[in-house]
Amino acid sequence: MPKVNIRNNMQTSMNPAITLKRLLKVLFAVSGKKLIFVGICLIISAIVTSGASIYIINMLQTLLASGKAEDEIIKSLIIGVGVMGVVYFFGICANVIYPRIMAIVTQDFLADLREKLFNKMQDLPIKFFDNHQRGDLMSMYTNDVDAIRQLVSQSLPQVFLSSIMVLVIFLVMLYYSLWLTLIVLACVVLMLVVVKAVSKKSAKYFVKQQKSIGAIEGFIEEMIHGQKVIKVFNHEEETKEKFDKFNEDYFVNSSKANTYANILMPMLGNLGNIMYVLVAFAGSVMIVKNGLNVGLNGLSREAITLIPIVVGFLTMGRQFSVQVSQVSQQINAVIMALAGAERIFKVMDEEPEHDEGYVTLVNAKLDENGEIVETEERTGMWAWKHPHKADGTITYQKLEGDIEMVDVDFAYVEGKTVLFDVSLHAHPGEKYAFVGATGAGKTTITNLINRFYDIEDGKVRYDGININKIKKPDLRRSLGMVLQDTNLFTGTILENIRYGRLDATDEEVYEAAKIANADDFITRLPDGYNTMLVNNGSNLSQGQRQLISIARAAVANTPVMILDEATSSIDTRTEAIVQRGTDQLMKGRTVFVIAHRLSTIRNSDTIMVLDHGKVVERGTHDELLENKGPYYKLYTGAVELD
Hints:
Elements: H1 6-9, H2 16-64, H3 70-123, H4 126-130, H5 134-176, H6 178-225, H7 227-232, H8 236-289, E1 292-293, E2 298-299, H9 301-348, E3 360-366, E4 372-374, E5 382-387, E6 394-398, E7 403-413, E8 416-426, E9 431-436, H10 442-449, E10 457-462, E11 465-466, H11 472-477, E12 479-482, E13 491-492, H12 493-498, H13 506-515, H14 519-523, E14 532-533, H15 542-556, E15 560-564, H16 572-586, E16 590-594, E17 606-611, E18 614-619, H17 621-627, H18 630-636
Parallel strand pairs: 9-16, 9-17, 12-15, 15-16
Antiparallel strand pairs: 1-2, 3-4, 3-5, 5-6, 7-8, 7-10, 10-11, 13-14, 17-18
Helix pairs in contact: 2-3, 2-5, 2-9, 3-5, 5-6, 5-9, 6-8, 6-9, 8-9, 13-15, 15-16, 17-18
């Protein structure tokens, strides 16, 4: 099945404004009330910070005013200092409170985001994970979520605070002097032009940087997982070269992004200095024009009024340029966060695994009349609860394990069919084996039975019921699987076996291990069933890991078992032991077996030989040998399985 790299599959660009709006919508849904309180604190902080300029203007006007006694001037200054002290007290309180609340808001939001992303992934079909790199998906939980954390905890509060301060300072400046305000605005417009030009360049590379991180982490995860294979084939140097290419791509994008980002602040700082000089020059000219004659007659009334305003404007102009710089400094963080949010939202917008089923699996028993009825208690008997939409009645069909496929066609990718007109009928208790070269379609058939993928054409029936009518969780609960690739989770051996049925007792787990012939090696471990497994059971041999996987299927105690190369990782001696255990496990169950070792399927009721998605032969072992067809050639070694 073709793999689709996540870097190609997730590059569809979303509108940044829409992404930001969606992000804020989720943020307010999680912590709306706290954010309103944070907003109030930021407004107080902005007003207090901006109030310093007004205080300077008033203080200078008081000092320069004529006709007032010395004690009156000192009294006015003391009152001014007192008022500013109270104002700054509230500002300090606001600045202490809002970061603490914002930290809680950020963590609440990130916890909610990670939970939604993880839950969404649980609802996605197997096809999604077949087509995406695990390392790149993990990058969403780390790099992308961390970029969003920086946006929520730092960038958004800073942008909001700076925006309020810019608005307040602008209104104050406009109140005191229109002409000086226009000079400041002209310089700010020039600063914004520079910000737009530089940010456009850096934004492109910051987005590429985020994608490069995902690519490099996907490669690293893949190489760590395949480290044994790398060493077996002595591909260390080739692996280093490939990593260097990924690393170089990341380096180029990151260096260019940060180069543009790092030149922005010095440029804005120098533009701010130019604005400072222009305001000082223009203010001085205005003072001179309005009657500054210090040497002869002193200061005119207009000059006395203008001097405090010009001095205050110098402070306000500096604050204005600093806040513009603060906003521009957050642009790159915002861009990185939105790039990460786009990737996360794209996963969240993926089509979930559809389930139109309405037939469920329930505990059942026979009543006094011999009729199947539903019960809450676990009886060991199961039934399909089938509501009939036509008349509203409900019927119960005993779970037998009868599987039938009729004229099934299937394609992983539209237009590229991999199964052609496949039909089979496995009766309850029968062992059905699939044989064929790699890519013949053996595993694909089992993927259709448990509805990891849905068929294009034909029918699949389970106990006479179309499996499309059966709810997927109930369908899969009735199927036990042992896969070629064993997956063990961090936890004890007992917990890993119990994963097949979480309500299984310890005694049932022990019995399942005995059936799979795993009990012998488990009890010889220092901690027995309480042995802790980590890193997919790397502290066990491949064969031991497979035995635990078989025990997991045994404890599920399902009427249908699917064994996909279940003994491929077990030595010949262990295979004979496991074969006896699986033979016991398969009694009374419908079993589908995929095996390269043809000796393990000799006792199958039906052996189906597949070639490029088509059934070329079927029958019992003896019948197929007698026919001397494809199976005979495989069994005698005239033709080998790939």
